[in-house]
Write a structure and sequence with these properties.
CATH class of the largest domain in chain A: Alpha Beta
Shape of chain A: globular
Oligomer: homodimer
Strand order of the largest sheet of chain A: 6-5-4-9-12-14-15
CATH topology of the largest domain in chain A: Rossmann fold
Mean pLDDT of chain A: 89
Distance between the termini of chain A: 37 Å
Structural class of chain A: alpha/beta
Number of strands of chain A: 15
Number of domains of chain A: 2
Largest sheet of chain A: 7 strands, parallel
CATH architecture of the largest domain in chain A: 3-Layer(aba) Sandwich
Radius of gyration of chain A: 19 Å
Low-confidence stretches of chain A: 65-73
Chain lengths: ~250, ~250
Amino acid sequence: MKRERITQIAELLDKRGKLSLKQLGEYFPKVSLMTLRRDLFLLEEQGRIIRVRGGAMSVKDVQKTSGEPYVKKTTIHTDEKIEIAQKAAGLIDEGASIFIDAGTTALYLAKEMPDISCNVFTNGLAVATELCKKKNVLVNLLGGPLIKDNLSTASSFSSIYFADTNFELAIISAAAFTPENGFSCGSQMEADLFKVICKKAKFTYMMLDSSKIGKIKPYTFARAEDINVLITDEAFPEGLKESFKALNIVVM
Amino acid sequence: MKRERITQIAELLDKRGKLSLKQLGEYFPKVSLMTLRRDLFLLEEQGRIIRVRGGAMSVKDVQKTSGEPYVKKTTIHTDEKIEIAQKAAGLIDEGASIFIDAGTTALYLAKEMPDISCNVFTNGLAVATELCKKKNVLVNLLGGPLIKDNLSTASSFSSIYFADTNFELAIISAAAFTPENGFSCGSQMEADLFKVICKKAKFTYMMLDSSKIGKIKPYTFARAEDINVLITDEAFPEGLKESFKALNIVVM
DNA sequence: TTCCTTTCTATCATAATTTATCATAAATTT
DNA sequence: AAATTTATGATAAATTATGATAGAAAGGAA
């Protein structure tokens, strides 16, 4: 049914932020791309989405909500971050207690997360807001001074806060990685927070898209050997994968 | 049996959300599709379902899918709240350190607030997000478990948190007020938080639109004499104004 | 730039769905 | 039982949705 399909497309776009026509085609294999194209046109007329070359994006795009500067993209490139977020979402079990960070990938993870009963700690406002849509997820926000450019909190206070709160799983992402410098990020406070988190958590899952490899940021918060699972995308170099595996880290 | 069939169709649609004409035909093999079509037409006239090409959907289903993404609870008394928020915004001075609560009026206040250098503490996610748009305002978010229906945090932890943070001004709003029961709200945690806040702050400004008067909520957190300034709207009863003024409270 | 590839638009033919109309059957009224 | 209303089913006409295709436009690479 047309009406239903269009609704689904709109929902999908709200959730994913942007989609290429090809991706849409995978979701709706029964109809032709031409039809989907027409659906997008209709949705654009209603002001519910924005059509761009290659696909479409939701009106309130992810960049806006996560606080990243809004750049109007003219083309759609499939986001590795979503791929990673979907993988990570699949690893969350009922009843788990998890920390999730405040990054863009984490926001995608929040969107992709199953609505199962679990506890989630986060320092990201957008992540927290997103998670509030899930009925069964208990959300716990880390307080403190807000960092405006990524809508996150990170204070020296966090270690005290975590004294009485526990989570078994930390799913975090780094802004940069090299084998020599490990996982690093641009903020001292965040690095400190991550150190505490990693120590606190029984398992640390690192979400790292391949664009971060070879980059270095000022503050290292973990080494390769400190993590348990590395979640990454297709383009991740095989050699590096092997060296992670050699450290007994699951790469997926 | 027409009547009965139509009721069954309506119930079926309520349960399943949406049905194609073909599916309906399987449920009612004794009648022709034309008849079922006519039934759907009647149901639509009564406003019980919505016909779409290929079948029909329940009203609820359509509303759900075409509706807003999140808690846009139809706020009433919007104008009064904005009026109050504007008054409150005018009372904020450069360099001040303020606590703002998580309510709807507080959100308007965040929007109306001048972009001057000051410190704002809040337990509201929406308030915090809004304030992040102001360059000069330092935002400090109270952490803890999130209450999903108003996107606020309120935990037993807050008093510890406030041990080392200071603000001179608390601008809060109550869900209800009577002279006998004072200012009250619907959540114990929030009431506790407000008590701590009022004690901590040098001055307490209460934003109270006139629709709250005469209502009582389970948890009282302050009495009339505990506040310093009452910010309200035009419709606020004169008599009550006088009794506040008699307590040396500024009413505006 | 120029060429090449991809994506988009426009158009048409076809398929599916709905509406309109009429005749008949069933129920209801007189 | 006859007359009248109402419900149903069948059919054709109209509308709408879809898929295919060719040419136009846009983006990327040499």
